[in-house]
Design goal:
Layout (H helix, E strand, L loop, with lengths): L1 E5 L4 H12 L4 E5 L10 H4 L9 E4 L2 E4 L1 H11 L9 H35 L5 H22 L12 H13 L12 H11 L2 H6 L4
Parallel strand pairs: 1-2
Antiparallel strand pairs: 1-3, 3-4
Length: 207
């Protein structure tokens, strides 16, 4: 059985949880407690040398980095979360790269300020928020064009590319960052389709 080491509040852990639920893969979940610094302790550093989450152990095969884990879990379960054409796979990889490079860094600036900084007793950083707003809006414009013509990012089926965006948008929808989505109806419709999937509801702790 897959052993998952992560934290339910972690965006990257939630990607893996969604993939596990989507593929009906049995797993054991060991919570790594950030408040106790468990992610920086030797036991976890042996699994993830950068002191981050998640990591998995599959009968002795260890793997970290959420996007790699999602690909591995999907392939192990039969590959339903990857398109079955060359072009579809390439399109999926394109949107995974967009998420990694052009969406997530900006989204995290807002998530840190609106969610994690208050938990840590830190004040908001207006410059960081402005940069985050600009970056997310830039990415949403590109997503809107794609999703106005496609049900999901890689085509007609839900894939790992869609999963990658979900944890960040879930958090943004509970912050002032939600206002950024108002002018993008196709993105909003896609978010509704994705966020109501049972796999995501479980991953986000809403089911």
């Amino acid at each position: 059985m897959i052993k998952l080491f992560g934290n339910p509040l972690s965006t990257c852990t939630r990607k893996v949880l969604c993939t596990l639920h989507e593929t009906n893969t049995p797993f054991e979940f060991t919570v790594i407690d950030f408040t106790k610094g468990e992610h920086k302790q030797p036991a976890h550093l042996a699994r993830q040398p950068f002191g981050q989450v998640p990591a998995i152990d599959d009968d002795g095969f260890a793997l970290y980095e959420s996007r790699a884990i999602c690909r591995y879990l999907n392939q192990k379960a039969g590959g339903s979360l990857v398109p079955n054409t060359l072009q579809g796979c390439a399109t999926m990889e394109q949107w995974i790269s967009v998420e990694t490079s052009n969406f997530t860094p900006a989204a995290m600036k807002l998530i840190y300020n609106y969610i994690f900084f208050p938990m840590q007793g830190k004040a908001e950083d207006p410059t960081m928020i402005a940069d985050g707003n600009a970056g997310v809006d830039r990415a949403l414009k590109v997503l809107e064009t794609r999703l106005a013509a496609s049900t999901y990012l890689a085509g007609d089926t839900f894939t790992i590319a869609d999963i990658g965006f979900l944890p960040y948008i879930e958090y943004l929808m509970g912050t002032p960052g939600k206002a950024l989505f108002a002018g993008y109806p196709a993105v909003q419709a896609w978010w509704t389709r994705c966020s109501e999937r049972p796999s995501w509801r479980k991953a986000a702790g809403r089911a």
